[in-house]
Amino acid sequence: MVLQEDIEIINRKASKKSPTGRFRGLLPYLLVSPYIIFVSVFVVFPVLFCFYLTFHKWNIISPMKFIGFANYSRLFHDHLFWLAIGNTLKFLLLHIPLQLVVSLFLAYLLNHKLKGIAFFRASFFMPVIVSGVVVTILWQQLLGFDFGLINRMLQPFGIKKIGWLVDPDIAIYSIAVMATWKNVGLYVILFLVGLQTVPPQYYEAAKMEGATQWQQFWHITLPMINTTIFMVVILSTIGGFSLFIEPYIMTGGGPLNTTLSAVLYIYKQAFQYYNMGYSATLGFFYAFMIMTVVIVQKKLIEKEV
Q: Is there a contact between 197 and 286 (Cβ–Cβ < 8 Å)?
């Protein structure tokens, strides 16, 4: 009987946590608290506040006015927004295939052992780390109509000046070429990683069978880097949907709104027209659209892989 009472006393004492024990229990929460605070303040709260804005009319200065689903109704009748969506899709139709082909071609060349290969790898990656504003201003000078370097180089050959940024038919495609040049270095690195994972024994066996370089590339290289290709497609899609800096600086959305991207239009609604509620509505709808496209791509990728 006495022994049982002693055991109960010991258990009660052991169940009481000492200050050191309580601190150790709280330590994991203290360690992750900076991240939780950061995400709560800069991610969760802005998203919830933007969703709240979608049901209000607000120009920052005046008090918010609840308008229900009026912003959503306006969205589906906004011709300019759907024009911006169409411009973004035109950009993607050139940007994604061009990004894929150019980056894979450069990575294939850089995967060979050549003199000065480290210099070329660094050179191709350099535009990625340079400010997007700086790169855009540079290309703006290159593609200028009257004094652009490219048009001046074409004049001695009798070629008339081309309105790279002022012709409504080609302006968005000029921006697509520029954006590809800016981002291609990142995808070159990704493809290099994929190419270097291909076992060299496969190429040796193919050579013994008499396979040409093209046959080796088509039947060995491409299937082995299939996952990398699809990853580049997804990243290029997300990056293309985020098109903003290039049209904002180079054309301002012109000429005739032919380079007006969806993100640029959302920005203008918020900070040029001060339609904060409507801008938040456009942002939520656009984010949902991007998420849908990425999910569809992911399903197709998983099926192919």
A: no
Asked if residue 285 is part of any domain, the answer here is yes
Q: Is 190 in the same domain as 140?
A: yes
Whether 7 maps to a domain, the answer reads no
**What's the distance, Cα to Cα, between the start and end of the chain in Å?**
69
Contact 173, 94 (CB under 8 A): yes
What confidence tier does 19 reach under pLDDT thresholds 50, 70, 90?
low
Q: How many domains does the chain have?
A: 2
Question: How many of the other CB atoms lie within 10 Å of CB of 232?
Answer: 22
Token readout for 173 is 């495609």
**Residues spanned by the domain of 42:** 19-71
Cα–Cα–Cα angle for 275, 278, 283, rounded to 5 degrees? 115
- The tokens describing 169, both together, are 């038919």
In 113-212, which residue ranges form alpha helices assigned H by DSSP? 117-129, 132-142, 149-154, 171-195, 200-208
Q: What was the pLDDT predicted at 8?
A: 55
Residues 215 and 116 in one domain: yes
pTM, whole model, 2 decimals?
A: 0.84
% helix / strand / coil in the chain, to the nearest 5? 75, 0, 25
Tell which residue, 139, 36, 95, has the closest CA to residue 236: 95
